Amino acid sequence: MRLSIVVGLLTLAGTASADNVEDQLGPREIGVGEAMRGGATGASAIPLNPAGLPLNRELVFEGGFGYRASDSASLIGVSACDSTNVMPGCFFYGYAGSSPELEGMSGTRRTHVGGLAISRQFLPRVLIGQTTKYYDFNSTMIGEKAASGFAVDLGATIRMTQMINVGLAAQNLFATERTTQFPRTFGGGVFARPLPSIAMSFDMRYNLDVDNPTARYGGGLEWFIRAKQNGFPLRFGAVRDNGLEATYINGGIGMATMKFGLDIGARRQVKNGDETLILASMRFFGPRMSSPTLDSEPGFQ
User: Fold this and answer.
1) Which residues are paired to 22 by β-bridges?
2) In CATH terms, is domain 9-289 a member of 2.60.40.10?
């Protein structure tokens, strides 16, 4: 079992983003520049690429809370992921409530989202996944309208070699009602583990729900340091958003044992703004089995 407590602090110049794709990211994804579409496992696979669920084998129950100071946002999420069976899957639910201010006027936003992510090995080196979710968004902000309905994410992971994965994912590709809070996005990435203790990744993501599709791309590195039965991941990364003309530097640290893990991730905007994001999570593990595909945390299977 894994219990994750996620604490976020986000300081923005202006109104905080209500993009659900960004709100679901955790400290590990943030630490490596949001670049894990080729190697996302467990709860990380829900916002990035559901096809990655079979990359490890574990049972995980997760609960999280986050706070964003810029718009007094409370973020709550719970999930249950089981990748020990033939068709790995996750049940999840998330809530976001905020009180943003824009040009001296304040309002409220609230979002409920829940669903099921599933994945399966399609060919010996190809994994496919799908997320079906229901969302309900309401806002009193000028220019924003309420929306609710179903949306579908699709993903694929291709194992090029034992060390290199390629991931492709589309969020909110099909939806019964369109809203800017759940934009259609398409992304891809490369995940490489040249050494058991080193992982490198690079991702690109396009927002398709704007007149001129904008790109957000990033990359990072994780160095997993072993010390007897414990491990200490160090993460570094950077992100560039062409739509916002913003640049970020990212980083994170953690600790992992056979029973629990602690992760802290941070993102700091260094161009065209001063956003700061900090996330922390604590995980408690149940049975974890050796995986024939990819071990997400070396030495702790």
Assistant:
1) none
2) no
Judging by beta carbons within 10 Å of its beta carbon (0-12, 13-18, 19+), is residue 143 exposed, middle or buried?
A: exposed
Q: Say what the pTM is.
A: 0.84
CB-count burial class (<10 Å; 0-12, 13-18, 19+) for 108 = middle
The rounded percent of the chain whose pLDDT value lies above 90 is: 51
Range list of β-strands (E), 196-259: 198-207, 214-227, 230-241, 246-256
C-beta separation of 255 from 261 below 8 A: yes
Residue 70: left (phi > 0), alpha (psi -120 to 50), or beta? alpha
Q: Look up residue 197 and give its DSSP letter.
A: T
| Of the candidates 247, 195, 255, the residue with the CA atom closest to the CA atom of residue 226 | 255
pLDDT in tens, 183-222: 999 999 999 999 999 999 999 999 998 878 889 999 999 9
